[in-house]
Prior knowledge:
By secondary structure, the chain is of the alpha+beta class. The chain has helices at 12-16, 21-57, 66-77, 139-148; strands spanning 2-3, 9-10, 84-89, 93-99, 106-113, 118-121, 134-135.
Amino acid sequence: MTTNSSGTITSPLAAVIPYNREMNNTTLMQEQILDLIEQFCDVLRTNYQEYSISLHRKHLDDPETHEWHQEQINKLAMGDGVDEYIYERGRKYARIIHVSKPSNQRSAHAFVDLNTGDVYKSASWKSPAKGIRYNLLDDKSREEMYQRADWAGGYLYK
Length: 158
């Protein structure tokens, strides 16, 4: 820090690193994409929870297993035993990860481009498949994805 002739404190970095509106907009867009990725993970988790509860409801008519299935429904409704969907940031992509309960086995569900919001099916743990499936920043595309999304990833196939 230095003081100029008018008494204003200035930073030597101010001359080297000027304010960059484009960089600031990119940062804001990436923050928006991360918020939408978290929302995407919530949609997938809710879908898994609803799917699991529906499987147990099919067996409520059986008097021998009714009590056990009702207990499982109650646990799932409280969030116990529901698989998680989380993400990990990489340089270019965020990996959406399905974490199975109770084993904590992890598998790549999808990838999201951190710069564009494009959603890809996973080809492997480390890379996305070719071909954009949806875009998180496009309202119409995002809503269609949320409507079609299922915990197993069938909506990502072309």
